[in-house]
Amino acid sequence: GAVVSQHPSRVICKSGTSVKIECRSLDFQATTMFWYRQFPKQSLMLMATSNEGSKATYEQGVEKDKFLINHASLTLSTLTVTSAHPEDSSFYICSARVGPSNTGELFFGEGSRLTVL
Amino acid sequence: AQSVTQLDSHVSVSEGTPVLLRCNYSSSYSPSLFWYVQHPNKGLQLLLKYTSAATLVKGINGFEAEFKKSETSFHLTKPSAHMSDAAEYFCVVSYNFNKFYFGSGTKLNVKP
What we know:
The complex is a heterodimer.
Chain A: E1 4-7, E2 10-13, E3 19-25, E4 32-38, E5 44-51, E6 57-58, E7 67-73, E8 76-81, E9 90-98, E10 105-108, E11 112-116
Parallel strand pairs in A: 2-11
Antiparallel strand pairs in A: 1-3, 3-8, 4-5, 4-9, 5-6, 7-8, 9-10, 9-11
Chain B: E1 3-5, E2 10-14, E3 19-21, E4 24-26, E5 32-38, E6 44-50, E7 56-58, E8 64-68, E9 73-78, E10 87-94, E11 101-102, E12 106-111
């Protein structure tokens, strides 16, 4: 199956700093990637849909100035958590859709655990 | 509106016994349905998907699921649980493949 790679897998940062998480499709081109956030013992919540070459579409309640998404190429999308605070600590997972929009399935990265001190 | 409900937050079975993880969906249109598995601190792996073909879908690792439109269900089953099946399972529904809606997850515990 298609491989989606996320980096870093774990990151610890100080409050007020910014953290960038990368999501790469290794063996396919992904015009659309999705960013999810997962709180402990909860399901995945869609944060935003990232489209190559255009602005990301954010879900209601997600601050786009805080969670900056860039999808500059067909194999790379990045999520930057700006001015991180402890409440931003979470597990962030990206996914990429493989195939046409009417048949495509999602492949997920391994996730990035962010801890803000 | 679309949503998906996983009726059990935790399921515990003994190794070698059948597994049943329940999922019901609500959708105004014909949905596509998926089951994903997540091991601790890992990403999600696709087990199987239904996209309007055969209603009984076979997936990896011996799992299968049956789409029942009359019951709006897509329950996941496996005849015989293995210790390595212990994980969290998510039922996912999508109408147009532009958005995917996740259930709340079911944590499967397999006892030796």
